[in-house]
């Protein structure tokens, strides 16, 4: 009774933490992890039960609703009155989030459904047989506390369905028993997208006020109006696609959008990514090309400067091609020097709208 009270108290404490959790980052698919833990049926009052087993394994969260875990198991069992046996085997578990799957929360609640193959060793205790191989099934609820986006601990109460391996006369009959598992898990990939992109917790939690959102929307609307208003002029502009080089003078008269990057990198924050979203939608509706003019932060090494510029071009190209299906041939490049920007250093790239 005392053990059951402790279990309920632990679950209640975890639920209290989960109730106060705030949503931050979104779930990252295809996350591999390793796990280790213990399992027991010690509170079962039967002739045979698992006293304690150790578990170690690995798994994969495919999406918030489907995770698989494969574990190896080894430990001791209680047989008859004062006898002991051993158990070895493997266990496959299917997991799905009941709470906290789509967003990062300190507390998650999962449903688990599993089956295992176990080899029980009895020695000469049961006389008629010295070992038995069995299949088992289990159903449980897993309460998970995320210490960090990579480390977590869990408590899992549940029920198991298995043969009466400890009963010589009724070894083929099935019995239902209760179990309790606990363990720790380490994720190789970050579970959540914003963290895996290198965004700090402070930046992720920083609020955006309504005035800033309105200003951003106004900028996008102004850009749309400018693009539509100059459509006829764009069709008359001259474009030369010679190994992704463009004519200088017509480009100076065309509408352009500045895309800001993080210092010395190619990461786009939410505001800059929204600009690319709008450009991607516009290119889906229009046959025009764009020209990307990359800049670089102050660099003492010419090779590093060239590499940084190319990374920023590649970041823009990846969003437009992979997210919006834009043909790479429609994304041209030009150097800042061709546009008259000599020794221009900044963490940005200019997108210039070209004619069809």
Automatic annotation (TrEMBL):
Official protein name in the record: OmpA-like domain-containing protein
Domain of life: Bacteria
Record's keyword terms, sorted: Coiled coil, Signal
InterPro entries hit by this protein: OmpA-like_sf (IPR036737)
Signal peptide boundaries: 1-21
Coiled-coil region(s): 213-240
Lineage: Bacteria, Pseudomonadati, Bacteroidota, Bacteroidia, Bacteroidales
């Amino acid at each position: 009774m005392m053990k059951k009270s402790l279990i309920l108290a632990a679950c209640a404490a975890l639920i209290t933490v989960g109730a106060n959790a705030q949503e931050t980052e979104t779930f990252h698919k295809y996350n591999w992890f390793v796990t280790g833990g213990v399992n027991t049926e010690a509170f079962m009052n039967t002739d045979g039960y698992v006293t304690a087993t150790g578990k170690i394994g690995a798994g994969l969260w495919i999406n918030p609703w489907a995770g698989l875990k494969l574990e190896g198991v080894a430990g001791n069992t209680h047989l008859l009155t004062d006898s002991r046996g051993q158990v070895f085997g493997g266990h496959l578990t299917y997991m799905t989030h009941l709470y906290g799957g789509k967003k990062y929360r300190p507390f998650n609640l999962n449903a688990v459904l599993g089956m295992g193959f176990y080899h029980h060793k009895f020695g000469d205790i049961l006389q008629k047989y010295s070992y038995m191989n069995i299949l088992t099934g289990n159903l449980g609820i897993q309460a998970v506390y995320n210490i960090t986006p990579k480390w977590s601990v869990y408590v899992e109460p549940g029920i198991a369905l298995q043969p009466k391996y400890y009963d010589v006369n009724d070894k083929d009959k099935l019995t239902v028993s209760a179990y309790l598992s606990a363990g720790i898990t380490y994720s190789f990939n970050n579970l959540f997208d914003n963290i895996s992109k290198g965004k700090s917790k402070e930046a992720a939690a920083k609020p955006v006020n309504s005035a800033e959102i309105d200003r951003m929307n106004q900028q996008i609307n102004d850009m749309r109006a400018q693009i539509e208003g100059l459509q006829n002029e764009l069709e008359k502009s001259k474009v030369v696609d010679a190994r992704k080089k463009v004519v200088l003078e017509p480009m100076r008269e065309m509408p352009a959008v500045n895309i800001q990057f993080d210092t010395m990198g190619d990461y786009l924050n939410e505001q800059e990514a929204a600009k690319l979203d709008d450009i991607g939608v516009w290119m889906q509706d229009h046959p025009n090309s764009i020209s990307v003019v990359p800049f670089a932060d102050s660099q003492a090494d010419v090779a590093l400067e060239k590499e940084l510029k190319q990374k920023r071009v590649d970041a823009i190209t990846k969003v437009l091609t992979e997210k919006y299906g834009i043909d790479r041939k429609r994304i041209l490049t030009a150097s800042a020097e061709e546009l008259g920007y000599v020794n221009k250093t900044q963490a940005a790239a200019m997108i210039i709208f070209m004619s069809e």
